[in-house]
Specification:
The chain is mainly beta. It is 8% helix and 37% strand. It has one helix and ten strands; from the N terminus they run ββββββββββα. Strands 1, 3, 5, 7, 8 and 10 form a six-stranded parallel beta sheet that branches. A four-stranded parallel beta sheet has the order 2-4-6-9, with no helix packed on it. The N and C termini lie far apart (24 Å).
Length: 84
């Protein structure tokens, strides 16, 4: 965990956080990696998922192995993406 904030009730199980902010009751499973992210309440990031420069809204489930923030074209097809 590097320069990150972990909210109450959140669990980081063998994952990497770099400039991340987790709100309350977030579960980050083993092998997941978050870079420059904000994750809202009651969300779960599955085993081995990778998220870069994203805001994950509350009550979301990022499946195991998912990659968000690495392929702009693919992300634009599935999510709202800003220029920054």
């Amino acid at each position: 965990i590097n320069r990150s904030v972990v909210g109450s009730g959140s669990i980081v199980d063998g994952a990497e956080l770099d400039h991340a902010m987790l709100r309350r009751s977030v579960m980050v499973e083993r092998g997941a990696r978050l870079e420059h992210c904000i994750v809202m309440e009651r969300s779960r990031l599955g085993r081995g998922s990778q998220v870069r420069r994203a805001i994950i809204d509350q009550d979301n489930d990022v499946p195991p192995g998912e990659r968000i923030g690495f392929d702009l074209a693919q992300d634009r097809q599935r999510f709202h993406v800003t220029e920054s």
